[in-house]
Write a structure and sequence with these properties.
The protein has about 130 residues and is an all-beta fold. The protein has strands at about 5-10, 15-25, 35, 50-65, 65-70, 75-80, 85-90, 110-115, 120-134. The chain has a single domain (about 5-134), classed as Sandwich (Jelly Rolls). The protein is built from no helices and nine strands. The chain has a five-stranded antiparallel sheet, with no helix packed on it. A four-stranded antiparallel sheet has the order 3-8-5-6, with no helix packed on it. The model has no long low-confidence stretch (mean pLDDT about 95).
Length: about 130
């Protein structure tokens, strides 16, 4: 078996993308699973491909597990960890957002890893992101 996961794109424009991610765990969890694939996002007005995103806002709820949001690279870099049995609405645009500070092998993608997951644990995460090009 595997966790029951879903990704829903709520909005994908030329400057912003909003995606919702859910997981109902069977106890197996997720380890560095690609959730935001920048190469699959809508292109810019000039047709250029999205190369990265800046997280400007997160709405989230984690029941029974934590979720680590990672910047994908040769060695993934922790962006933020969302706490077990917690929920929140975090606004980061006031200081420019959470920017990708990964180094070698940086892809621009975002990965999730669950921590402390057991059967029937859940998360719902909505990311509001600004797109980057070039």
């Amino acid at each position: 078996m595997a966790d029951a996961v879903a990704t829903q794109t709520l909005f994908d424009g030329t400057k912003r993308v909003v995606q919702k991610f859910t997981n109902i765990s069977d106890g197996s969890g997720e380890s560095a699973v690609k959730k935001v694939d920048v190469s699959a996002l809508t292109t810019g007005l000039d047709g250029s491909a999205c190369t990265g995103v800046v997280i400007e806002r997160i709405w989230w709820q984690c029941i029974g597990m934590k979720v680590q949001i990672l910047w994908d690279a040769t060695t993934d870099v922790l962006c933020i960890e969302l706490g077990e049995n917690q929920s929140g609405n975090h606004e980061y645009s006031v200081f420019g957002g959470l920017t990708n500070n990964s180094g070698s092998g940086k892809t621009g993608d975002i990965m999730f890893t669950t921590v402390g997951h057991t059967s029937a644990d859940t998360y719902t995460i909505i990311l509001d992101m600004r797109k980057e090009y070039g």
